[in-house]
Design a protein that fits this description.
Keywords: Membrane, Transmembrane, Transmembrane helix. The structure is a single chain. About 75% of the residues lie in helices and about 0% in strands. α1 packs antiparallel against α2 and α4 packs antiparallel against α6.
């Protein structure tokens, strides 16, 4: 009475075949299942000839063609939507602050959402502040037309934007630490009042 190799799993048949190479029944089942066609040392995946950088490049070009009309439509609507967008960003900032405060600053989801809304608020306020900071009160188009931007002038925009994003991160961290501190002192006060 031997082992019934037909009821074994593939890895069990393979183990039996490798441990006992002289066992003819194990070898027959091993070959019947087609396990002898795989190379044990070959763990790499080889795809067909259609993959590679060509597909990635094609996908990127398709995305560009799809997004180009969207960008044109958005640029025409930006003038009308600027006030609505600002209002939505401010409402989202207040709502995410409210929920982060309700969760006492310990919910990673609401903290992340508050950080994103803070980033959105700072991004929305950036053009208003950037005109006064770097462009001497002139609009960007007028500044570029009046004096061609040199290297330093062309680096002002990304430099100030990076500063604004760092300020956004610091702002959200300070607000969340303040919320945690307030909630912990409030809970300590409630605990103290319950004991009295």
């Amino acid at each position: 009475m031997g082992k019934d190799y037909r009821k074994m799993l593939d890895w069990e048949v393979e183990r039996e075949h490798k441990n006992e190479p002289s066992n003819q029944r194990a070898e027959d089942e091993y070959k019947r299942r087609g396990l002898d066609q795989y190379n044990d040392n070959d763990d790499d995946y080889y795809s067909g000839g259609a993959s590679g950088w060509g597909i990635v490049f094609g996908i990127l070009i398709a995305i560009c063609f799809i997004l180009y009309p969207v960008a044109i439509a958005v640029s025409h609507m930006l003038v009308e939507l600027a006030q609505i967008t600002g209002l939505v960003i401010m409402i989202m900032f207040v709502v995410t602050f409210y929920f982060a405060k309700r969760k006492q600053g310990y919910s990673s989801f609401f903290n992340f959402m508050f950080h994103l809304s803070s980033l959105g608020l700072f991004s929305f306020l950036f053009p208003l502040m950037f005109v006064d900071l770097a462009l001497a009160g002139m609009p960007m188009e007028e500044f570029i037309i009046n004096q061609p931007p040199g290297l330093i002038d062309s680096l002002k925009f990304p430099f100030y934007y990076a500063l604004f994003m760092i300020a956004s991160l610091i702002f959200s961290k300070v607000v969340m630490s303040w919320v945690r501190k307030k909630s912990s002192s409030y809970s300590d006060l409630n605990r103290y009042n319950k004991h009295i």
